[in-house]
């Protein structure tokens, strides 16, 4: 059976699980999120592989980029990604990557961006199924009424990430963490 290399990574916003397959990042998520088993099973089944706790160059680079992002020194991840999901989910995740650092959008706008304005609930579900946090920035999606909505890492973490990004856009000194982190 094939192996998905995984590593755990403790950060100031929680412990993450990272996974790579065929030199591409397929998992960057909160270790203790509510949907952990569902997400992990989708990835394992999609790749016909099992998790194996080993490091590799992709995971080392991913950890470095996560740390840089959380310090405000990285706005874009440049690791090759491997999205495991339906074609619809992948279209949503690709649209998420078009949302600029520091900006937010809504589930409705995201549905419009994939030319399926009536699929707001399905878009929200695909957003929640995202297994590659930060690089596929699902935290940038908020509700149409301005509420933050849910997040795999928790609403407090979502608020911190949005504040981190906005503070660095507003000219906060590079490398200075957001006061909420």
Overview of this protein structure:
The protein is an alpha/beta fold and 181 residues long. The protein is 37% helix and 19% strand. The protein has helices spanning 36-47, 57-70, 87-96, 107-113, 120-128, 155-169; strands spanning 2-11, 14-21, 24-30, 49-53, 105-106, 141-142. The strands form two sheets. A four-stranded mixed sheet has the order 3-2-1-4. Strands 5-6 form a two-stranded parallel ribbon. The longest helix is centred in the C-terminal third of the chain and has 15 residues, at 155-169. The radius of gyration is 16 Å and the shape is globular.
Low-confidence stretches: 172-181
Helicity range = 25-40%
Count of β-strands: 6
Mean pLDDT value: 92
Q: What is the succession of H and E elements?
A: EEEHEHHEHHEH
Helices and strands: which structural class? alpha/beta
What separation lies between the terminal Cα atoms?
40 Å
Note the overall shape.
globular
Main β-sheet, in a few words?
Answer: 4 strands, mixed
Sheet with most strands: strand arrangement: 3-2-1-4
Summary tags:
disordered C terminus; alpha/beta; two-stranded parallel sheet; 6 helices; 37% helix
Outline the fold blueprint.
Layout: E1 2-11, E2 14-21, E3 24-30, H1 36-47, E4 49-53, H2 57-70, H3 87-96, E5 105-106, H4 107-113, H5 120-128, E6 141-142, H6 155-169
Parallel strand pairs: 1-4, 5-6
Antiparallel strand pairs: 1-2, 2-3
Helix pairs in contact: 4-5
């Amino acid at each position: 059976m094939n192996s998905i290399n995984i590593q755990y990574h403790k950060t100031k916003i929680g412990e993450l699980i990272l996974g790579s397959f065929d030199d591409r990042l397929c998992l960057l998520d909160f270790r203790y999120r509510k949907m952990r088993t569902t997400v992990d099973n989708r990835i394992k089944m999609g790749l016909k592989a099992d998790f194996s706790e080993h490091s590799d160059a992709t995971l080392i680079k991913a950890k470095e980029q996560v740390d840089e992002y959380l310090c405000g020194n990285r706005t874009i991840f440049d690791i090759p990604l491997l999205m495991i999901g339906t074609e619809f989910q992948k279209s949503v995740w690709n649209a998420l990557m078009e949302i600029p650092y520091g900006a937010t959008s809504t589930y409705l706008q995201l549905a419009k961006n994939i030319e399926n304005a009536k699929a707001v609930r399905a878009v929200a579900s695909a957003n929640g199924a995202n297994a590659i946090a930060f690089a596929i920035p699902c935290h940038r999606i908020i509700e149409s009424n301005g509420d933050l909505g849910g997040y795999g890492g928790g609403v407090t973490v979502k608020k911190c990430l949005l504040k981190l990004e906005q503070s660095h856009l507003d000219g906060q000194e590079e490398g200075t963490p957001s006061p909420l982190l």
